Amino acid sequence: MLFLDEAPSTLDSIVRLKSQLSDFIEPELGLLHHLLRLKVLTRRQYDKLRAGVKAKYEQNEAILDLLTSDDQCDKFLTALQRTGQQHVVNFITQNGGQNDNDLTLYKSMNQNRGGSTLGQGAYGTCPPDSLVVL
User: Of 32, 55, 76, 133, which is least packed with CB atoms within 10 Å of its CB?
Assistant: First the structure.
């Protein structure tokens, strides 16, 4: 059971978001090299991933399948940052963006503080700086 003040682990978030992540991670930016240097991948896994490239999403799914601990996931986030993929890190750490309950809470908190208004996007109202995946 997940209590309101408990955030899901990074591994839980990655597993839940795997389908979306496999579409927009960019492995060509040196991600595999960084994962090897951070010891997330072994040399054998690295070579296999590079040699078996079929499609970007298949390579991404294979990378995500190799993540089995929060320590590996933290290093994965570091590798994403080092390859200019902060938007992917944000997507993971923000648990895939805002859901309706989060948006309601955000609006409530913002109104109570007299904060700025929410942005209006093509898919409705969303918090400033939120990630919208099209």
Answer: 55
Q: In the chain, count H helices and then E strands.
A: 8, 2
Which tens digits make up the pLDDT trace of 45-59? 999 998 877 788 999
Tens digit of each residue's pLDDT (9 = 90 or more) over 56-99: 899 999 999 999 999 999 999 999 999 999 999 999 998 776 44
> Taking residues 104-108, what's their average pLDDT?
40
Indicate the burial class of 45 (C-beta count within 10 angstroms; 0-12, 13-18, 19 or more): middle
Which of 10, 5, 15, 8 is closest to 89 using CA atoms? Answer: 10
Domains, the chain, in order of start with CATH, read 10-93 (1.10.533), 98-134 (no CATH)
Q: How far apart are CA 18 and CA 67, in angstroms?
A: 11
Measured between alpha carbons, how far is 113 from 32 in angstroms, rounded to an integer?
44
What are the two backbone dihedrals, phi and then psi, of residue 6, each rounded to the nearest 5 degrees?
Answer: -100, 130
- DSSP annotation string for 48-109: HHHHT---HHHHHHHHHHT--SHHHHHHHHHHHHHTT-HHHHHHHHTTTS--HHHHHHHHHH
